[in-house]
Amino acid sequence: MEKGVPIRSISRSIAVLQAINKHGSLSMMAIARQGSVPYPTACRIVQTLILEGLIEQEPARKRYRATALVQSLAHGYQSENELVGISRPHIREITRQIGWPVSITTKVGSRMVVLDSTHAETSLTFERYYPGFTLPLLGCASGRLCLAHMEPEERENVLRWRAVGDDGNGEALLETTESLNAICEQGYATLGWNRHNLTPGKTSSIAVPIFQNGRFVSALTLIYFAAAMRQDHAIERYLSLMVMKAEAITAELSK
Predict the structure, then answer these.
(1) Which of 13, 88, 106, 159 has minimal Cβ neighbours within 10 Å of its Cβ?
(2) Helix, strand or coil for residue 36?
């Protein structure tokens, strides 16, 4: 990474806009809290975004919401329409059969992004996760699965940056590499008592890979209440169904 990058003001502005967009509308105090920026900074950013037409103040309320102009930011992005269209009936079928919500996630930059999920179609969930929700690569089962299927050089680069963030802990880096190799060999990833979601410590997950022409493109992830069953029981009950559906999606994607 070049010296001087990233630009902190841009990073903070993006965080504020994402927070407003995620929650629909927020007060200035909530914007500062959700965007993890000081209150005076949040005020300046909001004023700038209003000037640019990306957000507006709600009538008669001191809350701020995104405008239709934010759609222009995504105009040049070609979404994963084919993947979502093909996987949608499969993830709905899984949830109909077993009750637990299922999501489709893919890697964008250094995070996993939810493309689709069935959280809104079941009562067996604490929160509803909509497209665009992000998770850290090493903080979710789908991210670990993605890392496990990366080319060695790409994976090494990602883990090296993580090691720098962990004060260059080489032992942790080696341990992570070995665990990712094991995930690749067994064909699925798990994570218990997930911490990096909307309800930290309350759910666990199982993720299986989806490929397109031999290349990993996404993860099919089952999310269940951590207190409801042990991880080995969840694997015994649901892994075969998850693998079958992932293989069906892979076959359709690779036609």
Answers:
(1) 88
(2) coil
